[in-house]
Specification:
single chain; mainly alpha; 2 domains; 3-stranded antiparallel sheet; 14 helices; 3 strands; 73% helix
Length: 393
């Protein structure tokens, strides 16, 4: 099937398809520019190497997005428990035997391939799909503690608790997303507050474990980043250069490929890619990026309000919140509103598993929108038939 035919046959929310297109363009331009200095320092590797790698991941991501979009979203409800059963052992394995990078075990080496996979990305997707299924199936008893709340609380505590020792920021954002999804799903507020309390207890236990076993929990890194945020000089080295990049960009930016701070800013192609985008494309580029994520949230809310099935609404909302909350957390770090977290900018930062899982998430959202669009068409057609029958009578 030709690309033209695929584009012609695309259904679902066209605005979200456009959002994906613009984010991909920003990704390729920014990663190519921001990886230049890093490529030079890496034994003189050409920056084009990182661009080609990003192209490959984006190409695979778009393929997975299309496959996820074509699959009926109801099928995700059927495999939700299986995904969670796979995710939890993967998190345990990663915590114990995962590849250690920058003093953190977040990655699992893929056998026979020179690539690593961040298992927390898969776990986020699995947990959100499972929560959407559970909330939808328990709407009749959603206010009941034993029937509705307990089946929801255990997966959240287990998954977030396994992610937290090596990646507190990801665990925290996933926990927040889960709370928001429960709130939208009409879970009783007192149970949500109880979950918050349990989350604090689990965090306290993790801190105690980290005190006794510093190799297991990155407690020193957490303390260092918090102290740097509150008491460091302008937030520390990374934040200083991030703010310099943003200030240097001004209103219209210095132009594509002309960033100076990519020579000084660590992980400019990943964690701090937003600062590079603002430096090169100015305030206009920064606002456009924020606007794209906000528009994604708005379009997903529209899908939710029109969805005739609770599972579709919860699924689209949960996956959207996961993407948008992470995006704004990444941006907040760049402008010194949050401590350094190590979170990427979804579908923009360089990366492997993050791009792939974000692409799958967007594909599922588009699958829900395709169903909603079809339901709206059938509803209008039915109304026209009824009006025609009334006029004939």
């Amino acid at each position: 099937m030709s690309i033209e035919k695929v584009i012609t046959n695309l259904r679902g929310d066209r605005t979200i398809w456009l959002i994906v297109f613009f984010l991909v363009i920003f990704s390729l331009l920014a990663v190519y520019s921001a990886s230049g200095s890093y490529a030079f320092l890496s034994n003189g590797t050409a920056a084009e190497t990182y661009l080609v790698k990003q192209l490959l991941f984006i190409g695979l991501g778009l393929t997975l997005m299309y496959v996820s979009y074509k699959l009926d979203y109801i099928q995700y409800s059927k495999i939700a428990p299986l995904l969670l059963v796979i995710a939890i052992p993967l998190l345990v394995y990663t915590m114990m035997y995962g590849a250690e990078i920058n003093d953190a075990r977040r990655w699992m080496k893929i056998p026979w391939m020179n690539q690593k996979f961040q298992t927390s990305d898969f776990a986020k997707l699995a947990l959100i799909i499972f929560l959407a299924k559970s909330i939808a199936s328990k709407q009749d008893v959603i206010k009941d503690f034993k029937s509705a709340f307990l089946p929801l609380i255990l997966p959240v505590i287990i998954v977030c608790g396994l992610i937290a020792p090596s990646d507190l920021s990801t665990a925290g954002l996933l926990f927040m997303t889960s709370l928001l999804l429960m709130f939208i799903g009409r879970v009783d507020m007192k149970y949500i507050l109880l979950l918050v309390l349990l989350g604090i207890v689990v965090l306290a236990l993790i801190i105690i474990v980290g005190t006794a076993f510093p190799d297991v929990v990155r407690l020193d890194t957490w303390i260092s980043r918090i102290n740097e945020f509150f008491y460091g000089t302008d937030g520390g080295y990374q934040i200083q250069h991030s703010k310099i990049a943003i200030a240097h960009g001004g209103i219209i930016g210095v132009g594509p490929g002309k960033s100076l701070e990519q020579n000084y800013l660590p992980y400019a192609y990943a964690d701090f890619i937003y600062a590079i985008i603002v430096e090169e494309y100015g305030l206009i580029g920064g606002i456009l990026i924020i606007g794209l994520y906000l528009l994604l949230l708005i379009q997903s809310i529209r899908i939710v309000t029109k969805s005739p099935k609770t599972f579709g609404a919860m699924l689209a909302m949960g996956l959207t919140l996961n993407i948008v909350v992470q995006a704004f957390a990444n941006i907040a770090v760049s402008v010194h509103l949050l401590p350094v977290t190590g979170l990427t900018l979804p579908l923009v930062s360089a990366g492997g598993s993050s791009i792939l899982i974000t692409s799958v998430s967007l594909g599922i959202i588009l699958s829900v929108s395709r169903y909603v669009e079809q339901a709206q068409i059938e509803k209008i057609a039915l109304q026209e038939i009824e009006e025609l029958n009334e006029s004939n009578n």
